[in-house]
Amino acid sequence: MTRAIIVGAGGGGLAAALELANSGFDVTVLESHIYAGGCAGTFYHKKYRFDAGATLAGGFKENGPMDIIANRFDIDWKGKVDDIGIKVHLKGHPCITRRIDEKAWEKERFEQFGRSGEKFWKWQENTADLLWDLALRYPPWPPKNLRISRICGI
Question: For labelling, which of 36, 83, 90, 92 has a CA lying 20 to 30 Å from the CA of 13?
Answer without folding.
Answer: 83
